[in-house]
Amino acid sequence: MKMVWLSILVVSSLLLVVVLLKQKLSWNWLRAFVIHLVLAAGLLYLVNETGVVEGLYIPLNPITISTAVVLGVPGVIMMAGVQLFVV
């Protein structure tokens, strides 16, 4: 069953990439997404490595990076708050 879901994910992802690359506006969107992705991963790395807050560690995984890309700096602050006060 996992292979079925994995194959559906791969095929749909490839079709999405094809659709995005055929549009002329897709390059600007893709460039902005990659810039946000790199900045979010960098910010999460800085938060983890500087040790500004004792005991704060936000793991670098697809969920946390996606949250940081979509929400930006407030998303990183939100994840830090969840990590410190809820978990």
Mean residue pLDDT: 82
Please state the CA-atom Rg, rounded to the nearest Å.
16 Å
Total DSSP E strands: 0
Outline, from the CA principal axes?
flat
Tell me about the biggest sheet? none
Low-confidence stretches: none
Instruction: Spell the H/E element sequence.
Output: HHHH
Fraction of residues in helix: over 70%
**Percent of residues in beta strands?**
under 5%
Structural class: mainly alpha
Describe the overall structure.
The chain has 87 residues and is mostly helical. Helix 3 crosses helix 4. The longest helix has 25 residues.
What's the topology here?
Elements: H1 2-22, H2 26-50, H3 62-71, H4 73-85
Brief digest:
The chain has four helices and no strands. The protein has helices spanning about 1-20, 25-50, 60-70, 75-85.
